[in-house]
Amino acid sequence: MPRHRVRFIPHSPKAFDGEAVIIKGQWSCSPQQITDIDQGVVEAHELANAALTALGKSNVARTPAYFSWFGPESGGPSASNLVEKHYRPVIDSLKAPSVETAFRFSPEPMFPPNTVTDKSLVFGCSGNNGPCADGQMVAGVQSATATEAAVFGTTLLLLCETFFDKTRPTNQGRVKQWQTESAIGDMSKGFVLVHETQHMLIATGAGERADDLKNPFFGFLDDRCEDCYSATCCSRLSAAEKVKNAQNYAIFALVGILFTGNLVRTVGPWGDEVSCQSPPG
Q: SUPFAM superfamilies, from UniProt (predicted)?
């Protein structure tokens, strides 16, 4: 099906008014990369639906999975808040792009008129250039925050060459590693997109946008990443910190696939090999 130039249809109060992909100029995506983005969105929806199923259980706040990533129960968020502010927005707000656009940096950052708005989500592909040059990033979001407007006038999701690596596992591949090692390892495309959606103010709403918190255990308990991406770090945060760390939402969704029927033991010890390849949103 051909991609149309303009399509602005609201999905929900928190949804974007259109999803665009850059095909010309800086950060343009190839047809194959666009296909991979579409598949990543499908995977992200699979993870979000698993989280929604888990959160629909009456005793979810008393399970080890909930305790590990959002608890303890007395200090953690409500299941209904996680549903409405963080997982349903992945389904309502993260859509495959159907609008084509272009982007240039000079003489000033600019999209062509009538292709995106300040409420659009734009996918870009950086290759190994710009912020992706060091090879350590997988994806990053430039979004408005509670106090600042979006730098590029819209929500931009930039995908690095590593996101499109053909060896990147599927959700099921990650589940198998979690079953055997309790390790995140190389993240699936869907895992990355669930994480990045938590950085988008339009998706989560005011007061709910998550960041990539610094790893308070780096250098003595957890040497994997300076930011809090590993399961070891994410599980050791306080309840107030867990709800503000984007990786916690992605891990709970991954665990949700495995434990949809029974949210059993998910508390360490962690055999945690994690790629430190997700930048601050």
A: Metalloproteases ('zincins'), catalytic domain
Which CATH entry fits the domain spanning 19-59+76-210: 3.40.50, 1.10.10, 3.40.390, 3.30.450? 3.40.390
Instruction: Read off the DSSP letter of residue 130.
Output: G
Contact 87, 253 (CB under 8 A): yes
Question: pLDDT for 21-36, tens place per residue?
Answer: 999 999 999 999 999 9
First and final C-alpha spacing in the chain:
32
Which residues in 127-151 are b (16+ Cβ under 10 Å) and which e? Answer: beeeebeeeebbbbbbbbeeeeebe
**How many CB atoms are located within 10 Å of the residue 266 CB?**
23
Read off the pLDDT of residues 205-223 as tens digits, 9 standing for 90 and up. 989 999 999 998 887 766 6
The sign of the torsion formed by the CA atoms of 56, 62, 63, 64 equals: positive
- Copy the structure tokens of residue 161: 């060459």
pTM of the complete model beyond 0.85: yes
* Residue 158 in this model has a pLDDT that exceeds 70: yes
Q: Kindly provide the residue ranges of all beta strands, DSSP E only, lying in the chain, ordered along the sequence.
A: 19-25, 99-103, 121-127, 139-142, 155-160
pLDDT for 210: 95
Instruction: Give the integer Cα–Cα distance in Å for 42 and 120.
Output: 19
- What are the boundaries of each domain within the chain? 19-59+76-210
Question: Which residue matches tokens 């590593």?
Answer: 162
Q: Enumerate long-range contacts of 117-120, CB under 8 Å, 24 or more apart.
A: 117/8, 117/17, 117/18, 117/154, 118/144, 118/149, 118/150, 118/153, 118/154, 119/16, 119/17, 119/18, 119/154, 119/202, 120/8, 120/16, 120/17, 120/18, 120/19, 120/20, 120/154, 120/155
- Quick check: 156 pLDDT over 60? yes
